[in-house]
Amino acid sequence: MMTTTTTITQALKMHFGFDNFRSKIQEDVVKAVVKGDKDVFVCMPTGAGKSLCYQLPAVLAPGIALVISPLIALIQDQVDHLKSLNIPACSINSKLPAGERRLIFADLGSSSPKLKLLYITPEMVASPSFKPCLTDLCTRGLLSYLVVDEAHCVSQWGHDFRPDYLKLGKLRARMPGVPCLALTATAPKNVQEDIVLSLTLRTPLSFITPVFRSNLHYDVIFREMLPNPFVHLHAFIQQSLALDSGSKGQGCGIVYCRTRDSCESVAHQLTKLGVSAKPYHAGLKTGDRTESQNEWMQGKVLVIVATISFGMGVDKANVRFVAHWNLAKSLASYYQESGRAGRDGLPSSCRIYYSAKDKEQLNFLIRKEISRKQGKRGSLKETDKATITDFDAMVAYCVQEACRHTTISKFFGNKTPNCAGACDFCRNPKLVRAQLEKGSSLSTKTKAQSSQPSGPFGFLPGFYEGGKKGYGFERFDEGEEDAEGGEDDGSTRKKEFSNLYKKQMTMRKGMTVRREGFVPPDDDCQLRDASSQKIPRLTVKTRMHCLSLLKEALYGHQRADDTFNDTVSLAVNTELDLFEKSKSSNLYKAAILKKVSDIKKTGPGERGDDGKAGSSDSTEYSSSSSFTEKQQGFTSASEIHSMKRKRFGAGNILQYFAKKDTPEKSQQEEEVVPDNTSISPNTVEDDHELDRPLFIGDEMEISSGEERKEEVILISDNDEEETHPIDTLEVTWFQYIPAEDIATPAGQKETQEEDKPILIEEVTGEVTSQKAPSPPAKSCDPSERGRKETQEEEEPILIEEVTGEVTSQKASSPPAKSCDSSERGQKETQEEEEPALTEEHCGPSEKRVTFNPNVQERPLIPANVPVTLKEAADIVVRYLNPFYSKGKFATKELFKSFARFLSHLLTEGSSKGKDQVKAEAQTLIKKFFIKVQHCKSEADWTHLRKLHDGKRK
Ligand SMILES: Nc1ncnc2c1ncn2[C@@H]1O[C@H](COP(=O)(O)OP(=O)(O)OP(=O)(O)O)[C@@H](O)[C@H]1O
């Protein structure tokens, strides 16, 4: 590799378009790598131009440089950049289309491959598909370099440790003659040592430069002290972007948030304040995410509000600011993330919006995670301690009176840099001090209360109850197929956090637990009376969601003279009003939905005379809101049919409610039922959406009569998991269909069946003579059977269809079709699943059970409901619980039998006076379920059920 300086400089110009090296050290590294007689270790600041240090030598050397990089997105950016420079580079990864993969392998297998750089993730190194190729390249001596980018990932002391990086030592051993180059921006001394050891670098030439970047201005703002943090952030953005006025183009910036929700809300707030901002997080569809990134890269969007999964592969020169809305998990991470700013060397700002509450939460999550790891491995590790130390360093950076640059430099083992006013402390120490004093007076209480017994690192592992890993800092959370598997999804983490954080805080404060699982509101929570736990099981999150629904509805109806704040405060007040009036979570949610529906029915700009949200006229709703469902994480009804269904366990009784157009409607129903609507539930959408909390936007289609369709959102407290024990279900409604809607023409029905996604089955047919005019011949219809079969496979069964009769006279006319051979075929399928059912119902004098997913046409509960819908729901929840575990009923049959029983009671009672029936039904149900609760086995249950069936007949 004898290449002269002139050749190198010419190549720099020719291939990369640079006249000079960015720095002397960059030049030195390139020369050392080109020389190729030694391994090289490079630790240079973010944006220093490390990539060129291996890319240029790779272009000059014969053969292929194998580059290990942690993220497919990062790799993709590098490859795209190189390709744009006409440098043959590619990547092999799990996302590669088969055709491209073949071409690459063909080139690699040829006698003289054209490729100069081949990028792979550490996981790919060991993959069976790539291993033979790698061995072949090694054997034929075609590898020019082994490059390990982001080499700190190899170290357990590093802030982004990746276990698969440890495999690289072995890889290194397989190519002894190939020079190795390791690069990082964030390696304190211990990490540096780890890198050298793990990669078995042989007496490497080390190029280590201080982390100090004089063009970055660092400061910290205490978020809790701000009257309006968003306005403050907005001003910061304006100020930072103004820095760019003298340079070529308009700058841009990044706001990092820890959660997807905050990404959404910060982006929304900024947009409202007049800055073009877009969210970017793993909960978005790939297309939306790519669009956000592209628009930001092209300067169409000035601010990207992202989780930390954004940015690692992004090399944008004119990032004028990086704001952290939440703390980073360590000072090293913060340095790397904030280092996305000012890569063109021009002045840029890096700010943290520090919040003591945020700190507490992170502190808790980090320690919990460590506790979990300890529990798993049964021992303590020094690296556990380092995780805490690193986070403490992050906090210290925010809360100490010291130069920010100095704090960072010291953390990385560098000397004190010459800050020269490039941080808030060096610029105005008095201001920093004043902020700290005010901040500490705010948090004195918390500190005084936190004198707790401490474990090995100042905490007791038991205190945190173990739990699963992760606390919102997975850089590799974007469906990195090559990446380390087994990460929890966000919702699990959130759920754990909700419960454990609250418990932890309560323990610290020496309080008794007021409500299991109640997560206190964030500081910037817009709700009024947000900490109130007056409604059992209603979470702050659900209230926030409801508030957003109200806001969304109101934005579309803003009057010309309304300001944004008017609308927000109207939404806040309306929410509070409904919160105060509601006694249960269900009623609260229903009231919100009704209000939203009312608002939407009102024409834009109209709010009724009193200016209150939601006057109820019949003006057709038109969604003029700029804040669409999509932005909120919802999918429009029009997209529903293309969505993959989420499977609900039988216990997840999805709810329906509809207006009962009868004068005797109970007050409770009145409260919960939106006008003239019936709702069919829809299923939660595609897989990647499942990692968001379930409560966000489980969508339902509302239809009024046959024609009108709207979108509403089912609000559930199931915001943390996909299935719940039944007793945790809150929104539990049965569908109510007015009697007059029962007879629906068959053709119409079929269309509806095709159109409507169904989650529950129904109870059809009649239990009284008037109501059972004809057993449903349609279930003999082959097309219907086809539908049924499909649905039985796909659909969770929630409420069965009872076809036929339960009174003796009715039972005497058995549905002939049950003996039809095709029907038998259908039954055989059922029999496998439901032997008891078939046995019991196949005989001529028995009622026959089939499944019918068509919930729209026929009533679950006939016209006069003897118990309220809510009561019916409560009954299901309370009494079926003993037969419910791990998201499922013990058997489908159990559930069906119950449904049959319940519907019988309800239907039977429908001909009597309402109050009397209600009382009777309740007594019966109670009696029955007292017995049910004494059932110790399924046999007991079957016995009881038979007894009951006997009585009924
Ligand atoms: N010699 C050079 N002259 C001008 N610009 C350069 C030169 N070398 C690199 N750059 C530019 O500097 C920017 C930062 O380079 P690079 O992405 O390699 O940084 P890095 O050190 O890898 O940063 P990080 O650790 O944050 O990823 C890029 O836009 C790159 O094109």
UniProtKB/TrEMBL annotation:
Its main location: nucleus. Residues 600-612, 658-668, 750-759, 781-790, 820-829 have a biased composition (Basic and acidic residues). Residues 600-640, 658-691, 743-846 are annotated as: Disordered. GO terms for molecular function: 3'-5' DNA helicase activity; ATP binding; DNA binding; four-way junction helicase activity; hydrolase activity; metal ion binding. Its cofactor is Zn(2+). Residues 627-639 have a biased composition (Polar residues). InterPro entries: DEAD/DEAH_box_helicase_dom, DNA/RNA_helicase_DEAH_CS, DNA_helicase_ATP-dep_RecQ, Helicase_ATP-bd, Helicase_C-like, P-loop_NTPase, RecQ_Zn-bd, SRI. One of its GO terms (cellular component) is cytoplasm. It comes from the Eukaryota. Residues 615-626 have a biased composition (Low complexity). Residues 31-205 form the Helicase ATP-binding domain. It catalyses: ATP + H2O = ADP + phosphate + H(+); Couples ATP hydrolysis with the unwinding of duplex DNA by translocating in the 3'-5' direction. CDD domains: SF2_C_RecQ (cd18794). The keyword Cell cycle applies. PROSITE patterns: DEAH_ATP_HELICASE, HELICASE_ATP_BIND_1, HELICASE_CTER. Residues 229-388 form the Helicase C-terminal domain. Pfam families: DEAD (PF00270), Helicase_C (PF00271), RecQ_Zn_bind (PF16124), SRI (PF08236). GO terms for biological process: cell division; DNA replication; double-strand break repair via homologous recombination; negative regulation of macromolecule metabolic process; negative regulation of nucleobase-containing compound metabolic process; regulation of DNA-templated transcription. Belongs to the helicase family. RecQ subfamily. PANTHER family: ATP-DEPENDENT DNA HELICASE Q5 (PTHR13710:SF152), DNA HELICASE RECQ FAMILY MEMBER (PTHR13710). This is ATP-dependent DNA helicase. The gene is recql5.
